[in-house]
Design goal:
mainly alpha; 4 helices; 2 strands; 3% strand; binds zinc ion
Length: 132
């Protein structure tokens, strides 16, 4: 049977204070970590903003492509400005015979020959600038 531990045996050993050389190393790494966190705090919002701008520009380029297809279709089929157009009408005038895909998963729609095509992201996201 084991003897119960005496208070002197069970007490944790006191933590030895860091030597001056180790202390300065810890301070150095702390400063490095703080600088890295500071740079990340500055860079991340800019990355997010750049990504948002790139998505917006890609969507606007897609809308221009769709608008060009609508105008070509209207010209070839002698349509008036108020005539209705569907996405299936213009597929032959788009690259790959398919509607382009919005980078933020919006869907494109067309209504009449004279109106500009729209992205659904502009309707569902307040402040979205996915429009011509
Ligand atoms: Zn879009």
């Amino acid at each position: 049977m084991a003897e119960p531990a005496t208070p002197a045996e069970s007490a944790p050993e006191p933590i030895a204070p860091l030597k001056p050389k180790k202390r300065s190393r810890v301070a150095f790494y702390s400063v490095v970590v703080v600088i890295i966190l500071l740079l990340a705090a500055i860079a991340v919002p800019n990355f997010v903003k750049a990504r948002t701008t790139a998505c917006k520009n890609a969507c606007i380029a897609n809308l221009k492509q769709i608008d060009g297809a609508v105008q070509q279709w209207a010209l070839e089929h002698k349509k008036q400005a108020t005539d209705r157009v569907t996405t299936t009408d213009i597929l032959d005038y788009l690259k790959g015979s398919a509607l382009p895909i919005c980078p933020v998963a919006g869907t494109y729609s067309v209504s009449t020959v004279s109106s500009v095509p729209t992205c659904s992201d502009a309707l569902k996201t307040p402040g979205s600038t996915h429009s011509l």
